[in-house]
Design a protein that fits this description.
The complex is a heterodimer. Chain A has helices at 135-138, 221-224, 327-330; strands at residues 12-13, 22-27, 33-38, 42-47, 52-58, 63-70, 73-78, 82-87, 92-98, 103-109, 114-119, 123-127, 139-144, 149-155, 158-163, 167-172, 181-184, 191-196, 202-207, 211-216, 228-231, 234-237, 240-243, 246-251, 258-262, 267-271, 276-280, 288-293, 299-304, 314-316, 319-324. By secondary structure, chain A is mainly beta. In chain A, strand 18 (191-196) and strand 19 (202-207) form a beta hairpin. By secondary structure, chain B is mainly α. Chain B starts with 5 loop residues before the first helix and ends with a helix. Classes of the chains: A mainly beta, B mainly alpha. Chains A and B meet through strand 17, strand 21, strand 22, strand 23 and strand 27 of A and helix 6, helix 7, helix 8 and strand 1 of B. Strand 30 of chain A pairs antiparallel with strand 1 (274-276) of chain B. Chain B: It comes from Stylosanthes scabra. Chain B: Its main location: nucleus.
């Protein structure tokens, strides 16, 4: 792979990357397989450790999201309005169903055994992937949202949906007839990404204004008192601040700390409980489009891929870096308590 | 030469100026006062980026283990419920001006990183109540001045947890999808960029309008004060007809499932480090297969003039018919992102991501925001007793720096 350019401090560059922007990437829960969706209309499956492309699926339009079901299959959400199931071994895919507009997010819920998709048609749909193909068989339900869906995240039985217009809906998957909670984002500008804490107590929400809000599901005063927001991914230049969108959030599966990636090309790791930043990786060539930790937290996949935040313009090439994660970068530091 | 003060390394020293040890981080003793420019206003510090620095730098945040020079960081981290050396300001013994505090390299400020006390993260913003349109307006002006994001096509709400004042945001994926579609249809690179520019300008005009006109709240029954709800001569209530025609770009991309060649086929990839995004192949190969559907029923003809017509042709909308007709020349203080876009921020501090770690300001919390329809009351500041408390509970930590009266 010897790409002469990539300095080691960014991680190992993945071979055979997509030929256009990367919309999302995910590690499997069972292995170091990495699924990557791209604006070049492909979904690619890599073995990240071996740095080998294992499968590739072409779609009818840019693919905006992807997720694993298990190590033999996955799902994708594309701008051609389709939701597809991808079979890795045979390199075949089939259409599970469609939305009325590009499908922006896809998540598989192990708890519910269902696939959940969010689309710019302002709906959320749940699918049962065990059925045969065809919308009649697989669609479990359609749930209207106040606005176009931008990001979703699952933990346990909870689903958080972030839409345009700063709306946030929280659902219990066991009862999708209406949201468990309806909120407006605590941040003032457009939401970019929402991710639930691995411990299931709340979610982190990032926006285009270089901020992340840490929220909690429990509506009691005590819990709500813990919520806060912090500024990040900003740069001071000539006396002013350049405020970068925060595109990606990824929680470390072991420590519960999380990484954020922004349009400034930096990846920061934060300790949400202690409210501190733990680490900042070297700057990547361009915006960070997506982040994913491997199941054991030892690898971090970084998609350095221009995300169009400044419209159409020339940009650095899109690349994926796989970096090893050192404990020092992600482990919360113990608090030093004063002597009694 | 005197020793470095360990407490200071740790983040707080109760002696302040009186302390007999040097208040500086190692290797930076000369630059202590200059550090406000470099202070990491995110307040997190610790290691920035380079492994090899770990051992060398005293970790000024006093996590202890890494720091070669100051292994024991004991002494009174007094009254710090969160353990991040929240220091100086809460200690009524502390002498020294608030200004001075801010220059401490790893100061844990709970204002949102602002250099001045009247910083942008003014207490108002934490819990703004829309009772006075003037106050709302000030809040808006403040936000725009200090925190205007790079991304223009955003929505905006000046009060947290409240509906947007400016709706109709577009994500960059949507913009991109539309641009790709346009390219497929044969639009030239030039006109695509032009179209994008128009969209941006019209959104900028919306923001400008919000800034300059007297503030009128979006209609929202959940807000307390309705008394300021004047008839807005400019308002063009936007109905959301609830159909799935959310896409402001109005033409869903459908495909009959064929595997079409990528029109932007980037076969010979970028040799140089910089490549135009897939539009580089615009001239060629726009033959593929994105079948254009006939316009979905819900689209109005006006949709096609979405770009550049300005005003509220942003179809997606929530229930609030907030105003903002497109009023006139996009003379906005914010330049379109073609050039380097910099937004003013009077409180900026350079978070130099250097390794000799500088300031750390904690993530400060928003005040509790009860999820009921009414905004929770928050006593924003005249209660000085908060500064005299020994120990703060979560949720009551003031966000602004203390007034002078308690600091002395």
């Amino acid at each position: 792979m010897a790409s002469a350019a990539a300095p080691a401090s960014l991680g190992r560059e993945l071979s055979d990357p997509p030929s256009d922007g990367i919309s999302n990437l995910r590690f499997s829960n069972h292995s170091d397989l990495l699924l990557v969706s791209s604006w070049d209309k492909s979904v690619r499956l890599y073995d990240a450790s071996a740095n080998v492309l294992r499968a590739e699926f072409m779609h009818g339009g840019p693919v905006l999201d992807c997720c694993f079901h298990d190590d033999s299959s996955g799902f994708s959400a594309a701008a051609d309005n389709t939701v597809r199931r991808l079979l890795f071994a045979s390199n075949k895919d089939d259409i599970l169903g469609k939305h009325d507009a590009p499908v922006r997010c896809v998540e598989y819920s192990y708890a519910a055994g269902q696939l959940i998709t969010g689309s710019w048609d302002k709906t959320l749909k749940c699918w049962d992937p065990r059925g045969a193909s065809g919308q009649e068989r697989t669609l479990v339900g359609t749930y209207p949202q106040p606005e176009r869906v931008y990001s979703i995240s699952l933990v346990g039985h909870r689903l958080v949906v972030a839409t345009a217009g700063r709306h946030v809906n929280i659902y219990d998957l066991r009862n999708m007839s209406q949201p468990e909670q309806r909120r407006e984002s605590s941040l003032k500008y457009q939401t970019r990404c929402v991710r639930c804490y691995p411990n299931g107590t709340g979610y982190a929400l990032s926006s285009v204004e270089g901020r992340v809000a840490m929220e909690f599901f429990d509506l009691s005063e005590a819990s709500q008192a813990k919520k806060y927001a912090f500024k990040c991914h900003r740069k001071s230049e000539a006396g002013r601040d350049i405020v970068y969108p925060v595109n990606a959030i990824a929680f470390h599966p072991v420590y519960g700390t999380f990484a954020t990636g922004g349009c400034d090309g930096y990846v920061n790791v934060w300790d949400g409980n202690n409210k501190k930043r733990l680490y900042q990786y070297s700057k990547y060539p361009t915006s960070i489009a997506a982040l994913s930790f491997s199941r054991d937290g030892r690898l971090l996949a970084v998609a350095s891929s221009y995300t169009f935040e400044e419209g159409l313009k020339p940009h650095e090439k899109d690349a994926i870096y796989i970096r090893g994660v050192n404990e020092i970068e992600v482990k919360p530091k113990p608090k030093v308590l004063p002597p009694a | 030469m005197r020793d470095l003060c360990r407490n200071f390394q740790r983040g707080s020293c109760q002696y302040g100026d009186r302390c007999k040890f040097i208040h500086a981080v190692p290797q930076q003793q000369q630059q202590q006062r200059n550090l406000n420019n470099n202070s990491n206003f995110h307040g997190f510090g610790v290691q920035n980026g380079f492994h090899q620095q770990q051992q060398q730098n005293a970790n000024p945040f006093g996590f202890g283990s890494k720091s070669a020079s100051q292994p024991q960081q004991q002494q009174q981290q007094k009254t710090n419920p969160f353990g991040f050396g929240v220091q100086n300001n809460n200690n009524s013994q502390f002498k020294g001006t608030p200004q001075q505090n801010q220059f401490k390299p790893f100061e844990n400020k709970w204002t949102r990183g602002g250099a001045s006390r009247q910083s942008d993260n003014n207490p108002q913003s934490s819990n703004h109540e829309c009772t006075d349109p003037e106050a709302c307006k000030r809040q808006i002006a403040e936000d725009f001045k200090q925190e205007k994001p790079l991304w223009i096509l955003t929505c905006y709400g000046h009060a947290k947890g409240a509906p947007c004042d400016i709706v109709g945001d577009i994500s960059y994926e949507e913009l991109r999808a539309e641009a790709y579609e346009d390219a497929k249809r044969g639009m030239s690179l030039q006109s695509i960029v032009e179209k994008e520019r128009n969209t941006l300008n019209s959104k900028l005009a919306e923001f400008q309008k919000l800034l300059t006109e007297p503030y009128r709240m979006p209609f929202n029954p959940s807000l307390n004060s309705q008394k300021n709800q004047n008839a807005n001569p400019f308002s063009m209530p936007i109905q959301n007809n609830g159909q799935h025609n959310a896409n402001p770009f109005s033409t869903p991309i459908q495909n009959n499932g064929q595997h079409n060649a990528n029109p932007f086929s980037l076969t010979t990839q970028n040799n140089g480090p910089v490549s135009v995004s897939s539009f580089s192949q615009l001239g060629a190969s726009l033959n593929t297969g994105f079948d254009r559907p006939t316009a979905p029923a819900a689209n109005t003809p006006a949709q096609s003039s979405f770009f550049g017509s300005g005003g509220n042709t942003f179809a997606p909308n929530t229930a609030n018919p907030s105003s903002r007709g497109f009023s006139g020349a996009p003379s906005s203080p914010f330049s379109p992102p073609a050039g380097s876009t910099m937004f003013p921020n009077s409180t900026s501090q350079q978070p130099s991501f250097g390794f000799n770690n500088l300031s750390s300001t904690p993530m400060f919390q928003t005040t509790p925001d009860v999820q009921s329809s009414s905004m929770s009351q928050e006593n924003v500041s005249t209660d000085l007793s908060i500064w005299l408390k020994e120990k703060w509970n979560p949720g009551e930590i003031p966000e602004e720096a203390p007034p002078d009266s308690v600091v002395r």
